[in-house]
Records
---
Amino acid sequence: MRPLPPLLLLTLAPAFLAAQPAATPATPATPPPAQPAPAATDDLFQLGQQLFDQLAPPEIKAQYDFPSKQRWDEFAARLQKAFESDDLRALAEYAPQARLALPALQLFPEYSDYADWLKTRLDELEAAEQIVAPKPTPPTPKPPSTPTAPSAQKSSVPIENRVTERSDSSASKIENSLPHYDLFLARARASAAPSRAAALLPLLRAAFIAEGIPPELVWLAEAESTFNPSARSPVGARGLYQLMPDTAKELGLSTFLPDDRTDPEKSARAAARLLRANYEKFGSWPLALAAYNAGAGRVTRLLEKTSTKTYAGIAAALPAETRLYVPKVCALVAVRGGMTPENIPAPNRS
């Protein structure tokens, strides 16, 4: 019997549920006591095993056995290791499984916090797929056509196309200092803002302004949590701005119940303070964002090692996750907040 591939249960869960025959109506039973929401990956594993035992078709059970807890943990560790490595190709290989797992997680309200975390990571996995995909062969240039009169040639070019060309040219210049920015700019333009954003934006903008940080940077929350105040990651980050426990404590937040990281205002002000500290240390927003994601210590060491002062100078040596995260945040700020990276002002003096 073969082991069940990682996440196969989650990918099959929608089919399991849809395939169940309609049951004969029965007398309503007393509902069981409400169970607390899961707080660890152990609960997710137990749910998966229960679903497999109860819902997997016989032909699936005949071919597979449910993975052991050890194999499940090993898979999660490999995924996290891929994010922390500098290998975008290895990271991209996890995109197909994440695409299938996300809808399954979204079936269960008690796992919505994990689903929102996975949704943001899936965007980065799919971007990694695009980056490592073979580039199409450029078309053979057509022979030049017979020149037309200058006045006729000028009138044949729509004004709006010329504006678009200037805009694209500007974006390409940013790409040189911020690798993969053009890719994430296109992805942001093609996607809608999270539905929760509109209700939270006034409070978050006020929190950032109070800390002297440009309010456009509140869109960091889309990259971190899709604006879910309760979002959690398997490694312990929590809240709109995905603060780790130790970082949150250093910023003055409590991680005991109630966890301050799930309070939108407290989380936003703490994130803004961290951004301010990073900017004051590194002097640029791309480097400040890299430090937010990968840690100020790592960014400092890379700058010293490469004898450079720019994000572009260390980008190739950063973890794969950070190399995707920084241009993604900058693109979201440009599309949602209307401010391109080179125009984001420095923090106000406190």
Note: The two ends are 64 Å apart (CA to CA).
---
Amino acid sequence: MWQNLAYILIGLGFLTLIGWAVKGFFMEDTIPIAIRVAVGIMGVGVVILLVVAIRDRIKKAKTEDFKGVDK
């Protein structure tokens, strides 16, 4: 239980720092709008790939057959 709480807190801290950096990037007036849009699109693509990979791994973990492992 404590390990899961630690992972959640680390994840929330990491997401907070990323959000702060992303907000600063997208609010900067000196960066052209085309660059900000392109970076945003790439970020969404990376998030989609990450979610798909995690979802597939969870599905495979549920169906894996450990024939050589004693219960």
Note: Residues 31-62 form one domain.
